[in-house]
Amino acid sequence: MDNLVPASKVCQKYNISRRTLNYWLNDGLPCYRLGYRLLRFDMEAVNGWIRQNNK
Fold first, then answer.
1. What is the pTM of this model?
2. 3-state secondary structure the chain
3. pLDDT at 9 > cutoff 90
4. Which has more confidence, 2 or 51?
5. Percentage of the chain modeled with pLDDT above 70
6. Which pLDDT band holds residue 3 (cuts at 50, 70, 90)?
7. How far apart are CA 25 and CA 19, in angstroms?
8. Helix 7-14 and helix 43-53: axis angle, to 10°?
């Protein structure tokens, strides 16, 4: 949980749009919701989810 990054860093790392990230969130991408619109992502969990779901 020490490696929390904002959505923009996830989009930049995987070269995806924010819309694609939202689709992934609806499909179960793990995130931490720190407020109504404030999301943070654990990069290790994101990497594992992507490998598991072949995205």
1. 0.86
2. CCCEEEHHHHHHHHCCCHHHHHHHHHCCCCCEECCCCCEEEEHHHHHHHHHHHCC
3. yes
4. 51
5. 95
6. confident
7. 10
8. 50
Is 14 within 8 Å of 5 (Cβ atoms)?
A: no
- Report residue 48 as tokens: 């594992």
Place of tokens 């654990």: 42
Exposed (0-12), middle (13-18) or buried (19+): which is 18, by Cβ within 10 Å?
exposed
The sign of the CA dihedral 4, 20, 49, 14 is negative
Q: Which residues contact 44 (CB under 8 A, 6 or more apart)?
A: 3
Q: What residue type is assigned to position 17 of the chain?
A: S
